[in-house]
Design goal:
With 573 residues, this protein is mainly α. It contains 21 helices and 6 strands. The strands form 2 sheets. A 4-stranded mixed beta sheet has the order 3-4-6-5. The chain has a two-stranded antiparallel sheet with strand order 1-2. Helix 6 packs antiparallel against helix 7, helix 8 packs antiparallel against helix 9 and helix 9 packs antiparallel against helix 10.
Length: 573
């Protein structure tokens, strides 16, 4: 019925088998215009794709050049330097090495001095490399971030290719626009962190599994490589392994389409064999990544590894992965047991809220993007010819989101970056529904997304959509990497020099940077009696959101006078 209705919408009405009368001149003009558009389309599509990629590249490189180190970055950059110079797995075992090897490409290009005699923990390692070893942290951080920028742009091509196979060239461009204008992807794609690479490898594996329906011998091994890359980047991608293995079976089954029961049994057996092969390739990739770092796989941790018990211990022991990986899992389980503090919609709490990530995505996703995500997901389920691709586009992000929602760390949408990647592809499905008004509406929503994203430039990390007041008000709803991750220390230094020279400055900073390196000479107001704190008080918005005790009293007696990067507020006291 739906197909018939769509066909009727597209076909012009006829009268007795003839086309309806109309002005010949207008019809000729329309035909000439259509022919001209078809001639120009050959270069127009590449031009639009390159333009979208270029604006994302400019946004990410600008952000990478202007921001100071965020909280996690020095750990990864320091560990990458250790990989290059010492071939040691001693640091940051809770995350597998691949993402840090990507970062190491930039670190190697920067050529920093590495103190091989350093023996501190991983937090001190990054600080020592950036600020205490004679290196330029601006230059080193930019080089460390550039490989992640490049990888983020490559994943944009995967989104375009996936969506084009699903919804044609127009759908590919729409998906590419949703991806390249995503504030979350721009923000985290410009950092030397692991979240974008991990999510992108999962997306790539799903796309290759979809392609394997036609050429399984080529694409199933490649899907295993991409899946292994994801697992070798972040352990949070492990829930995708059974999902993508099952999709390997689906791809083999769909390619064979057995008609009789005996053939179906053989097809299932072949599919199960291929699924096992995909998993085996993924495991081999993980082993290869660890061997690249240390061919002898020596395991020495700088920090104690927590013991795990029960089902967790059984799971860790059963994994056919290197001992360093399994010890990293034990560390992750130990972190999950920690009573972390969260902040959502003005409320501070200890522990986790299962609805935190959906709520955070609602705040930090452009409104037009949310609409296209919902409409595209509905189209994938409702339109019969799109249903075969629905499991590849919708099931992996749903499973990963469900797993992330059970985490004890409510720290930001960076734990769900697979959502804007997969759902950019889903959003393209809207254009497969044959309604005359849909292309115009889709174009308008994409334009709304673009405007919303461009308006936040270059402050992508604290982005929130218009319904929640925009980037200047994100700190009222969320905290940590959603708003204030230590990225604006350099901008604060510039602001203090320009507007507040020679003033006494008090600073409560949440981040990994060293204020004095940037010329910020400030004291901690929490270390002296309240009556001594006069002048300019600078507080990270995440610290202000969760202020208690002395800090709350300090803020109560102060008035805001300025802000920097929508992440730091300046108060007069």
């Amino acid at each position: 019925m739906m197909a018939r209705e769509q066909h009727m919408v597209l076909e012009p009405e006829t009268h007795g088998g003839e086309a309806p009368p109309g002005p010949p001149r207008a019809g000729g003009a329309v035909a000439r215009l259509g022919a001209r558009l078809r001639r120009h389309r050959r270069w127009l599509v590449p031009f639009l794709a390159v333009a979208l990629l270029a604006q994302m590249a400019v946004a990410m490189v600008t952000t990478a050049a202007e921001q100071t180190p965020t909280i996690d970055e020095p750990v990864y950059v320091g560990t990458a330097a250790v990989y290059l110079h010492e071939h040691s797995l001693a640091y940051n075992p809770e995350h597998p090495p691949l993402g840090k090897l990507v970062i190491a490409v930039g670190v190697a290009a920067a050529g920093p001095h590495v103190d091989t005699s350093f023996t501190g923990d991983q937090t001190r390692l990054g600080r020592h490399l950036l600020y205490e070893s004679g290196n330029d942290p601006w230059r080193l951080m930019l080089w460390a971030r550039l490989p992640v920028v490049a990888l983020t742009l490559l994943f944009a091509l995967v989104v375009f290719a996936f969506a084009r196979e699903l919804a044609g060239t127009d759908g590919g461009l729409a998906a590419l626009a949703l991806y390249t204008f995503s504030p979350d992807l721009v923000a985290h794609g410009s950092l030397a962190t692991l979240d974008v690479p991990a999510a992108g490898f999962v997306l790539t594996s799903a796309w290759l599994l979809w392609r394997a329906r036609r050429r399984p011998r080529l694409y199933l091994p490649l899907a295993g490589v991409a899946l292994g890359a994801a697992v070798a980047t972040k352990m949070s991608t492990l829930p995708a392994v059974p999902v993508l293995s099952l999709l390997a079976v689906v791809s083999v089954w769909a390619g064979r389409r057995p008609a009789v029961r005996a053939a179906r049994g053989r097809a299932l057996a072949v599919g199960a064999g291929w699924a096992a092969a995909v998993s085996a390739v993924a495991v081999a990739v993980v082993w290869a990544v660890y061997l690249v770092v240390d061919p002898r796989l020596r395991w020495t941790s700088r920090e104690p590894v927590p013991a795990v018990h029960g089902l967790r211990a059984v799971l860790v022991d059963l994994l056919p992965l290197p001992a360093a990986y399994r010890n990293g899992m034990r560390t992750q389980f130990g972190l999950e047991d920690h009573p972390w503090q969260g902040y959502l919609f003005g409320h501070v709490y200890t522990g986790a809220r299962w609805y935190y990530l959906p709520a955070a995505l609602l705040v930090k996703t452009p409104l037009g993007m949310l609409a296209l995500w919902a409409a595209g997901a509905a189209a994938l389920v409702a339109v019969r010819r799109l249903r075969p691709v629905a499991p590849y586009v919708l099931v992996p992000p749903v499973v990963l989101l469900a797993a992330a929602m059970h985490s004890s760390r409510d720290f930001g949408t960076r734990y769900a970056l697979f959502m804007p990647m997969f759902l950019a592809v889903a959003g393209a499905a809207v254009l497969t529904v044959r309604r005359r008004w849909l292309p115009a509406v889709t174009g308008a929503l994409v334009a709304f997304v673009a405007v919303s994203s461009l308006r936040t430039y270059p402050y992508y990390l604290p982005y929130s959509n218009e319904a929640f007041g925009g980037p200047a008000r994100t700190h009222l709803w969320l905290h940590d990497s959603n708003v204030d991750w230590g990225q604006d220390l350099g901008r604060l230094a510039d602001r203090l020099r320009a507007r507040y020279p020679h003033e006494r400055v008090w600073l409560v900073y949440k981040g990994s940077g060293v204020p004095s390196f940037y010329g910020i000479h400030a004291s901690d107001p929490r270390a002296v009696p309240l009556r001594q704190v006069h002048g300019l008080l600078v507080v990270s918005d995440s610290a202000a959101a969760k202020a208690r005790g002395r800090l709350a009293a300090l803020l109560h007696g102060s008035r805001p006078v300025d802000e920097v990067g929508h992440s730091l507020t300046l108060y007069r006291r």
